[in-house]
Amino acid sequence: MKAQRLVDLLALVALVLLGLSGYLTWVSANPGNGRADVVFNGYTITKAPVTLALASVVAVVVTKLAGTLLRRVLGGLVALLGAVAVIVALTVRPGGAELSRLRPELSDVIADQVTQSLGVAPWFALAGGIALVAAGVITALTAHKWRRPTARYERDPAASPADQWKAIDAGEDPTL
Description:
Largest sheet: 3 strands, antiparallel
Mean pLDDT: 81
CATH class: Mainly Alpha
Strand content: 5-15%
Strand order of the largest sheet: 2-1-3
Number of helices: 7
Distance between the termini: 31 Å
Number of strands: 3
Radius of gyration: 24 Å
Structural class: mainly alpha
CATH architecture: Up-down Bundle
Shape: elongated
Low-confidence stretches: none
């Protein structure tokens, strides 16, 4: 598989995993006393995974139009964003007081009495972050082998506006 395709696939996988982490259960809290569990999705706990996924996908799309040096810089940026996603997935564990602030119905329960269980969302965020790190590293290492953007997106500085009008009058398309 070509490096460009692999990076595209990894970025897509990361987008799906990080996006899902925003909507799946990050933490569920059991306040006790026969009450039902209070579920907190990833987007309620932290907006970082979804934001990092969107920023990374934009960076991967820009690499398609960039030169080798900018591709390497963007690859490093994508790897950095993936590392941040991994850190967020491993460290964001809100305490009882934070959960009480997010959901007022927990505020009448002493924060220490809330029993928490970790949901699946941090694991999705972790896998998405790892995929982003891999995509960034592959981009940075193989940027010189990628296809260059086509010349159709580059402006021809030699053609003056008068020459372009003459081409249009002659029935030619000066943009090709």
